[in-house]
């Protein structure tokens, strides 16, 4: 499929075991600092440490950082990358032509190990005369907590804020700046000091936002190039930070990073091959590169089991990312199907440890502290469909590993939540569902499909537990829910309708494409579901192969995870051609780094919403490995 439009803005997810960050030099976040890293968290999502981290070069009185060209006496100018790519699935790379100074620069960022983020900038002098070029690392430390800064004996910069210590090291340096910049989110003093070579290297103790710059000036001959490397290292104590900085050798960081991600991918690949040998699952190689990028992006943001819905700031509360029970299980499933069992288990165990409502159900979402955080634009009191996802993921994990992640008691409690919920025409609810209550709290067909699949899975687990009572209770619930779902089938349109709201008795006559997740999660692919699938292909499509949502105006247009659920449905049920078309559509609507946004504007295909969205990235992976 030939695409005439440009890819969506490249926004990447960069991280490792203990660091998670969002990164863009593609003009993705708009303010003077909105280039490079814009949010960064260490070990948890309590404290957003950095507002910016990006390579900087100085040429005469101009500064270039990310996609910005800065002059003292005017506003920054935004540059457009000549080339954007992701190398080896984890090296985010952007190339810029700096026409005014006859230079070319290539910015690269990657993370690996427990706590390292590495930046590389290659500057090439295209002019016919020599030029003096200053090459630096630049970070802006957020002022949510008091900030202490100092220069260590080995010339690295050390910043302590909240519970984190940040070390900033460069391959070479003879200029250091630690600047109290501004109490707001806008910088200015740091740039002036670097431009004027007004070095400030004294220790600092402030509640102000701090800018740190470290690097060296070089003379580049005509046609000459230089690669400047620098890194951020994170630790819990100053002593730990110093030890780690001493082991940092820039000659080996690129090799170490490649080996780290190669090992991690190989562990999953081995398990995938073991499952594929049983199920004869053949994957299409044309999607593998994008799958690898999204696999690594999922890993980048998984912090001790906490999966943020996104890192763009859209799904934030109190300046912290939010953890949705639903989204996190969807990501856990992506890890499971890709063979990364440790990450899957970590996510499920994190959810199990969270506080639940008095009736035993999960809260819809939790904040960066892991505390319940309902509300925002989708507070619908209940979201019991997450119980369906939960039951299914626990069962699928057991099938692959022989380990049951949830206790028998917890599964019993969750079954009781469904039994004790309100019922309407056999369906359970009312709740918001995966579409978050666009018609109000309702007894939703898609939710009931998920719940059916989860209860069916728990029934199998109760067989393992030799719990006859709950095995039969699960059977009874599934029979009731299945009959309730059938009452929503629209014989005239030959599709399942949305469901029933709690404020009148008429069925809501709207389509709802999350129903694709029903058969994926264990609901029977009955004749009515097959007809619904045919209806969606004809009437729920945007831009040919993109699949819409619920006839709603929120993010009006095709959604990535709905389209990918359709792809997975097609793959499971033998529609190879349709599977490929949906996957190709998703690939062609990825951002410039190959990650998946949430949705595409129905009125302008060049606009995407929430770029990237963690669940959409995970569903691309899940659809490929299913």
Keywords:
34 strands; seven-stranded antiparallel beta sheet; nine-stranded antiparallel beta sheet; single chain; 6hp_glycosidase-like_sf; Beta-galactosidase, Chain A, domain 5; 626 residues; hydrolase activity, hydrolyzing O-glycosyl compounds; elongated; Glucoamylase (Glucan-1,4-alpha-glucosidase), GH15 family; 33% helix
Structure description:
The protein has 626 residues and is of the alpha+beta class. It has a domain of 238 residues: Beta-galactosidase, Chain A, domain 5. The strands form ten sheets. A nine-stranded antiparallel β-sheet has the order 8-9-10-11-19-15-14-13-17. It has a seven-stranded antiparallel β-sheet with strand order 7-6-5-4-12-18-16, covered by helices on one side. Strands 1-2-3 form a three-stranded antiparallel β-sheet. The longest helix has 27 residues. The radius of gyration is 26 Å and the shape is elongated. The relative contact order is 0.10. One of its GO terms (molecular function) is hydrolase activity, hydrolyzing O-glycosyl compounds.
């Amino acid at each position: 499929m030939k695409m005439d439009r440009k890819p969506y803005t490249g926004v990447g997810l960069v991280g490792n075991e203990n660091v998670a960050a969002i990164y863009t030099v593609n003009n993705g976040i708009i303010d003077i600092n909105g280039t490079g890293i814009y949010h960064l968290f260490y070990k948890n999502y309590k404290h957003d440490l950095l507002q910016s981290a990006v390579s900087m070069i100085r040429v005469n009185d101009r500064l270039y950082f990310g996609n910005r060209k800065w002059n003292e006496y005017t506003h920054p100018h935004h540059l457009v990358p000549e080339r954007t790519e992701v190398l080896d699935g984890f090296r985010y790379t952007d190339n810029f032509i700096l026409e005014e100074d006859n230079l070319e620069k290539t910015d690269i960022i990657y993370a690996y190990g427990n706590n390292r983020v590495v930046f590389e900038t290659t500057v090439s002098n295209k002019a016919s005369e020599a030029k003096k070029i200053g090459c630096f690392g630049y970070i802006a430390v957020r002022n949510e907590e008091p900030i202490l800064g100092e220069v260590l004996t080995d010339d690295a910069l050390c910043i302590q804020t909240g519970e984190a210590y940040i070390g900033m090291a460069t391959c070479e340096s003879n200029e250091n700046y630690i600047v109290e910049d501004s109490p707001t989110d806008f910088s200015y003093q740091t740039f002036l000091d670097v431009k004027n070579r007004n070095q400030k290297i004294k220790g600092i103790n402030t509640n102000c936002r701090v800018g740190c710059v470290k690097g060296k000036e070089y003379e580049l001959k005509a046609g000459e190039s230089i690669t400047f490397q620098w890194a951020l290292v994170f630790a819990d104590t100053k002593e730990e930070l110093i030890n780690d900085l001493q082991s940092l050798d820039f000659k080996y960081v690129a090799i170490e990073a490649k080996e780290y991600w190669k090992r991690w991918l190989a562990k999953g690949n081995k398990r995938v091959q073991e499952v594929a040998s049983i199920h004869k699952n053949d994957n299409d190689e044309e999607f593998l590169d994008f799958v690898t990028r999204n696999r690594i992006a999922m890993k980048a943001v998984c912090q001790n089991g906490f999966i943020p819905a996104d890192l763009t700031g859209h799904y934030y509360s109190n300046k912290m990312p939010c953890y949705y029970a639903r989204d996190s299980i969807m990501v856990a499933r992506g890890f499971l199907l890709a063979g990364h069992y440790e990450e899957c288990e970590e996510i499920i165990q994190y959810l199990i440890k969270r506080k639940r409502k008095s009736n035993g159900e999960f809260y819809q979402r939790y904040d960066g502290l892991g505390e319940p955080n309902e509300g925002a634009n989708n507070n619908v009191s209940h979201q019991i469909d997450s119980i369906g996802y939960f039951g299914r993921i626990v069962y699928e994990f057991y099938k692959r590993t022989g380990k049951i992640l949830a206790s028998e008691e917890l599964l019993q409690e969750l079954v009781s939540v469904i039994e004790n919920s309100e019922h309407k025409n056999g369906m359970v609810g009312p709740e918001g569902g995966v579409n978050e209550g666009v018609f109000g709290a309702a007894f939703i067909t898609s939710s009931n499909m998920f719940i059916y699949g989860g209860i069916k899975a728990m029934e199998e687990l109760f067989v393992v537990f030799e719990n006859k009572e709950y095995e039969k209770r699960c059977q009874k619930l599934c029979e009731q829910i299945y009959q309730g779902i059938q009452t929503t089938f629209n014989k005239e349109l030959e599709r399942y309708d949305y469901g029933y709201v709690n404020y009148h008795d008429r069925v809501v006559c709207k389509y709802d494409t999350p129903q694709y997740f029903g058969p994926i999660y264990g609901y029977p692919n009955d004749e009515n579901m097959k007809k619904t699938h045919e209806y969606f292909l004809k009437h729920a499509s945007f831009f040919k192969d993109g699949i819409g949502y619920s006839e709603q105006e929120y993010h009006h247009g095709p959604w990535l995870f709905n389209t990918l659920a359709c792809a997975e449905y097609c793959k499971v049920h033998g529609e190879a051609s349709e599977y490929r078309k949906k996957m190709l559509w998703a690939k062609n609507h990825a951002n410039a780094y190959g990650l998946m946004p949430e949705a595409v504007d129905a009125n302008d295909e060049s606009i995407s919403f929430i770029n990237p969205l963690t669940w959409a990235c995970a569903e691309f992976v899940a659809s490929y490995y299913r």
